[in-house]
Design a protein that fits this description.
The structure holds two protein chains of two kinds. By secondary structure, chain A is mainly α. Chain A folds into two domains: 48 residues; 201 residues, MetI-like (MetI-like fold). Helices cover 76% and strands 3% of the residues of chain A. The longest helix of chain A is centred in the last third of the chain and has 32 residues. Chain B has ten helices and no strands. Classes of the chains: A mainly alpha, B mainly alpha. Chains A and B meet through helix 1, helix 3, helix 4, helix 5 and helix 6 of A and helix 1, helix 2, helix 3, helix 5 and helix 6 of B.
């Protein structure tokens, strides 16, 4: 226990001197790094624009309030597209992610090399943001809902695959043993011993990801990949701030509803 | 009793996931109808896909020979910008989140403060970073400053929510123990509250840095600084060799940061 002795009086301390010094050194290092970062950012900033921000922001709000409520009539279709992108994207990702997860889980993979390939797919798709996928897919397939759906699907494969394969690795091995000891084939073991144990987890992950995907599908339109983001982009480019505020309200409400649905559905599963 | 009843062809089948057949079949039917309608609005045209496959050949070819050097300088600056944006906004978001997190803990503050802080958190968590970035770009102009503000705002919501939950769930026995020694409020916080919250918070900070790096890589698409703008420009100019190089660099960066932060988190906790 670190004790400081001063004038013959012993005082208990939290840490000894070395720990305290290392801690101070670490804080100093962090401060230094932050200062360097701040200087780098400051050099690359046009300060006259920043100083102008209160006026710009005030103008934006003044022109955005009240929102243009009747613009809603033009938003139903983009909203439907956004929902389609999120749902079909999640469904497609489900179809890809479940087999990949079974190939990646240590206890169900057919071979170690297959496992590493599956892990590569999971890590690779997870590292690329859906907006980057959307940029690439818009180049390949042209703008539209299809590009957005595929972008969302590709991004989700890694996310869902990772959570699902971790769930598969955590199953109770006893039912597997029991079914196998009856002489069941590999497919029968999978469907009677493993599948019932992981299905709730898989559905839970899918619903959770659908919720995230709805958020992400509101922005893929910014690069042309369909959904309400296209209207948002167009309204911002033409400085129609009352339309922008209307779109933001719509996004806020739909995200709120999707979060509620996803929470309720996951509760029902457990 | 132990008579074998003839089963007459009835076989055992595993119980369904949803017990009520009406709900089960209703959900299935609803899903089928929804997917049919959704697929029909997808505007799927085979010829466009066929043309797309040709173009993806070009893109794939570019990915096999990424060009790191022609625009090497731009890539380097973009990456540096992304990393600094992520680093500074993680720390700034953390610092600001401390008061907001306290304000959003129900057991500590009056209702109006609580509602204000919770509202701030909900705003920051509902909108994608990119949307907030667009608004900040309009206000503060193009460049990394808008990106820093965006990521700070995003981190703020993330940290405050988790911090508030932590504060609400803290073990009161240790607070009581320190307080009973006659310690001041500041000493109480630093000896009883901080040690309980800190290890998790360090882990969460690293986790958020991880998220911020991913976001900082794309904010440039809407003009908020970082490598994203370089990527967007190169794709618009059909400069696929550079674009593929940038994507590879982003993947490498994201994976490095994820591995490092995971390693540190394991050691701290």
């Amino acid at each position: 226990m670190p004790v400081l002795e001063k004038n013959g009086i012993k005082t208990w301390q939290w840490r000894d001197q070395r720990q305290v010094l290392t801690e101070y050194a670490l804080w100093l290092l962090l401060l230094l790094v932050m200062l360097i970062c701040a200087r780098f950012i400051a050099e690359r900033t046009t300060w006259s624009f920043v100083l102008d921000a209160p006026r710009q922001g005030g103008e934006m709000i003044a022109r955005g309030v009240p929102p243009r409520w009747d613009y809603m009539s033009q938003l139903w279709r983009p909203l439907w597209d956004t929902l389609t992108i999120a749902t079909l994207g999640t469904a497609l990702s489900f179809i890809i992610a479940v087999p990949v997860a079974f190939l990646a889980a240590r206890n169900t993979t057919p071979h170690l090399i297959v496992r590493y390939l599956a892990l590569l797919i999971i890590v690779g798709t997870r590292s690329v943001n859906s907006l980057i996928w959307a940029l690439i897919l818009v180049v390949i397939l042209g703008p539209g809902v299809l590009s957005g759906t595929l972008a969302i699907a590709l991004r989700s494969v890694g996310f869902m695959g990772k959570l699902i394969y971790e769930g598969i690795e955590e199953i109770n091995p006893e039912p597997v043993e029991a079914i196998r000891s009856t002489g069941a084939s590999g497919a029968q073991v999978l469907s009677y011993a493993i599948w019932p144990q992981v299905i709730t987890n898989i559905l839970g992950v899918t619903i959770y990801r659908w919720d995230i995907n709805l958020r992400e599908s509101t922005v893929v339109g910014l690069v042309g990949a369909g959904g309400i983001g296209i209207q948002l982009d167009a309204s911002i480019n033409t400085l129609r701030w009352n339309q922008v505020s209307m779109i933001l309200i719509v996004i806020f409400v739909s995200v709120f509803i999707s979060e509620w649905i996803s929470a309720k559905a996951r509760q029902a599963l457990i | 009793m132990a008579q074998a009843t003839p089963l007459s062809g009835r076989r055992w089948s595993p119980p369904p996931l949803i017990k009520n057949p009406w709900i089960r079949w209703g959900l299935i039917l609803g899903a089928v109808i929804y997917f049919a309608v959704a697929l029909s609005t997808l505007q799927f045209s085979p010829e466009r896909v066929a043309r797309g496959i040709q173009r993806s050949g070009q893109l794939l070819l570019a990915f096999l020979q990424p060009d790191f050097t022609t625009r090497g300088n731009l890539i380097l600056v973009g990456i540096l910008e992304s990393v600094t944006m992520a680093a500074i906004s993680t720390v700034a978001g953390f610092i600001i989140s401390v008061p907001v997190g306290f304000g959003a803990a129900r057991n500590l503050v009056p209702v109006p403060v609580y509602l204000f802080c919770r509202g701030l958190i909900a705003l920051s968590r509902t909108f994608q970073e990119v949307i907030i970035a667009i608004l900040f770009v309009v206000m503060f102009g193009f460049g990394p400053f808008a990106g820093v503000l965006t990521l700070t705002f995003g981190s703020l919501g993330f940290f405050s929510k988790l911090l508030a939950e932590d504060i609400e769930e803290i073990d009161p026995a240790q607070v009581e123990a320190i307080r009973s020694t006659g310690a001041s409020w500041l000493k109480m916080v630093s000896y009883a509250v901080v040690p309980q919250v800190l290890p998790r918070m360090i882990g969460l900070t690293l986790y958020r840095f991880d998220i911020n790096i991913r976001e900082a890589a794309i904010l440039g698409i809407v003009g908020a600084g970082g490598i994203g703008s370089t990527l967007n420009t190169s794709l618009r100019r059909y400069d696929y060799d550079t674009a593929s190089a940038i994507i590879l660099v982003i993947i490498a960066l994201v994976m490095t940061v994820e591995l490092t932060s995971g390693w540190i988190r394991k050691r701290v906790q």
